[in-house]
Amino acid sequence: MIFVWNNNNSNNISNNISNNNKCFKHNGPAIIAMGVFDGVHEGHQFLLQQASADALHYGLPLWVVTFTIDPDEIFKPLESLNKLMSNEVRLKTLDATVADNVLAIPFVKDVAALSPECFLDSILATAFPPKVIHVGTDFRFGACAAGDVKQMQDWGKKHDCLVKGHQLLQDQGSPVTATRIRALLAAGDVQQAAVLLTRPYIVSAKVVRGRQAGTEIGFPTINLAIEPSFATVGDGVYAGYADVNICGEAQTFRAAISVGVPQTFGDLPSTTEAFLLDFPSEVSLYGTNVQLRFVCRLRDMRRFDTLDELAATIKSNVLWISENLK
Predict the structure, then answer these.
(1) pTM as predicted
(2) For residue 92, which of 18, 200, 165 has the smallest C-alpha distance?
(3) pLDDT digit string (tens) for 158-175?
């Protein structure tokens, strides 16, 4: 269950959070795993497993404590955020882990201005008597990110609370971080990014009208308006899946996904578009949200001398997808 913290116990839930979530009230002793958890990747899951072991040992519930938004959304331009998932998906993904519950703290001006000790006193100690707190060794909190694990450990000693700072999980000799995953995505290595995420990278966006060039050559595509705050996948053509909703029914189609500048058609901006295999031609997706899951990279984006050459290449890509994705 996802709860939203509010020291007034009101129901003023952030717009980023579904109104189905419950407003939090004071809870009993608990094991806490705390962080932003962008991507809920392999490293985050390792930390949650360590916290789950303590929850089993002490016979206490495991709570994930996070924020309704990534604090960087307040302090950085949208274009530089490179988020791996939306806030709503992040919270739902955390709720589907080994955690018993998720507590989302609205990251508003008053919260951002709290000193590290005030943050711990007025929020964490008010929400629970925490028995053990699990964080990454690089976790920062409080105004100007002034608080660190050492300061949290000092606070814990005064509150009969053990604070465990975890080193970053290593994978193939390098730490698993959101920054590393973003770099893999930017390089087009969606397969290795999926290994670290433990799932394919997903983008979700609204379908908008495009150039209709795909229709002219027999491969009509949907064009997605990707928000600038999300991580960028490197230019190229990818195999993947598209999750769509048709007349209230969720359906999945194999997809050839193109990311980047369509060089064959002249000086045009970068786009993200997808051809959905076996998609019913009579159905329009304009204005709906579609979720793309990237499985593997097929080729570079390049300029073709003729539309026939482009169509033949797309046909070859689609054939590969039909034979290799089920």
Answers:
(1) 0.89
(2) 18
(3) 999 999 999 999 999 999
